């Protein structure tokens, strides 16, 4: 046995952080790192945001947990605000993105069952997707590396290649209940679905009586410069999972639904012990206070453009390191010309944190509150990392 009692399921970096301030993390040794990993797109408002700290501490002094056997006023308020600012009429709160997806999957199956189609339980998904680590969500994601060794794959998921809408249409059969996708694949390599594809999927769902489910766990809550990524396409889903950014670092997630999609989710058919607890609701409401402020999302888009232009200049300068820049808003990806793990290490040597993704991409997920100065500092560190890699490659390293 190793020196730790933890499961050895994470290849952790040899870094332990003691505190954070805005876009910065400080280690237990006092070293400062620029955090453009954001806890994997979670720390939407950076570290130690005063409004979030105040909301959490005030609630903590009053009440932590009562369970969903009773009314939770903060839950009703957050649900109303989420509904008002989206396509949704109904909200179910959970603790994690995977649970929000499980709720969406169950809601879609239950909808078909209640409409006299119990045979409709299958869901069409797309290659490269990441929907979570539960048995159902690894089956939905369909990635072999996450499925291996966990017994028979949960039945009910049919996968097609990324953005292959023709193949998706051909797969629709008498047992199909819904179509599920991330409007922008995060783990899959910062791959957005084209607007035309989303429109076509909406039409297919309407034509065949299917529900359209969006997974905006990573791309939602302002990450793309709009509150939700689906807004760019003007295509509304029937169900949507959100998490990560809505809690700003506290475990909060939700399944959003239209009245029609959620009508069969009646008393007793689904539940959660911790989901929607008073602490989580206080933080979720505090996050919305900031993100829904006038001009906030426009600032995200402005900062994103500044960053994307800076990254494009570095890519032009070091084509042997960076192949391309992709993404929208502050959900950005560096498509690497050498292994992304190598680029990630070079950036970490510059005390800049990023997150690897599929397709040999490195994700940059800074807080939505990051400053122009933070962005310029990040660009300088990325350029320095790219320069060191380019020089090493030229010297045969």
Fold and architecture overview:
- With 397 residues, the protein is an alpha/beta fold.
- Helix content is 39%, strand content 18%.
- A hairpin with a 2-residue loop joins β1 and β2.
- α2 packs antiparallel against α11 (278-291).
- The model has no long low-confidence stretch (mean pLDDT 97).
For this structure, the CATH topology of the largest domain is Aspartate Aminotransferase, domain 2
The parts where pLDDT drops under 50 for at least 5 residues are: none
Number of helices: 14
| Gross geometry | globular
The CATH superfamily of the largest domain is Type I PLP-dependent aspartate aminotransferase-like (Major domain)
What is the terminal-to-terminal distance? 36 Å
What is the CA-atom radius of gyration, in angstroms?
Answer: 21 Å
| Largest β sheet strand count, sense and barrel closure | 7 strands, mixed
Q: Any guess at the CATH architecture of the largest domain?
A: 3-Layer(aba) Sandwich
Give the strand order of the largest sheet, numbering strands 1, 2, ... along the chain: 4-12-11-10-7-5-6
**Helix percentage range:** 25-40%
CATH class of the largest domain: Alpha Beta
Number of beta strands: 17
């Amino acid at each position: 046995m190793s020196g730790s009692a933890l499961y050895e399921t994470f290849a952790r970096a040899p870094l332990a952080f003691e505190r954070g301030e805005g876009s910065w993390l400080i280690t237990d040794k006092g070293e400062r790192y620029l955090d453009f990993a954001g806890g994997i797109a979670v720390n939407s408002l950076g570290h130690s945001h005063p409004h979030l700290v105040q909301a959490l501490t005030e609630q903590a002094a009053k009440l932590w947990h009562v369970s969903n056997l009773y009314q939770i006023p903060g839950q009703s308020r957050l649900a109303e605000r989420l509904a008002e600012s989206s396509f949704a009429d109904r909200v179910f709160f959970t603790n994690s993105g995977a649970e929000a997806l499980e709720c969406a999957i169950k809601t879609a199956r239950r909808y078909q069952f209640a409409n006299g189609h119990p045979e409709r339980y299958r869901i069409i998904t797309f290659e490269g997707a990441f929907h979570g680590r539960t048995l159902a969500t690894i089956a939905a994601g369909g990635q072999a590396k996450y499925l291996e060794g966990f017994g028979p794959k949960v039945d009910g998921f049919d996968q097609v290649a990324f953005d292959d809408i023709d193949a998706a249409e051909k797969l629709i059969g008498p047992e199909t209940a819904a179509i599920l996708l991330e409007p922008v694949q995060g783990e899959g390599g910062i791959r957005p679905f084209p607007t035309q594809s989303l429109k076509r999927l909406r039409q297919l769902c309407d034509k065949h009586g299917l529900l359209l489910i969006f997974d905006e766990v990573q791309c939602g809550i302002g990450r793309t410069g709009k509150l939700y990524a689906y807004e760019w396409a003007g295509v509304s889903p029937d169900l949507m999972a959100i998490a990560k950014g809505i809690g700003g670092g506290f475990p909060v997630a939700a399944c959003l639904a239209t009245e029609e999609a959620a009508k069969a989710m009646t008393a007793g058919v689904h539940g959660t012990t911790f989901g929607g607890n008073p602490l989580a609701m206080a933080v979720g409401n505090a996050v919305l206070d900031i993100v829904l402020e006038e001009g906030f999302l426009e600032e995200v888009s402005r900062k994103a453009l500044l960053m994307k232009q800076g990254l494009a200049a570095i890519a032009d300068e070091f084509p042997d390191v960076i192949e391309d820049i992709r993404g929208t808003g502050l959900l950005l990806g560096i498509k690497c010309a050498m292994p992304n793990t190598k680029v990630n290490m070079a950036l970490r040597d510059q005390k800049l944190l990023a997150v690897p993704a599929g397709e040999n991409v490195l994700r940059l997920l800074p807080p939505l509150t990051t400053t122009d100065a933070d962005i310029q500092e990040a660009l300088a560190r990325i350029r320095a990392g790219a320069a060191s890699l380019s020089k090493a490659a030229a010297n045969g390293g």
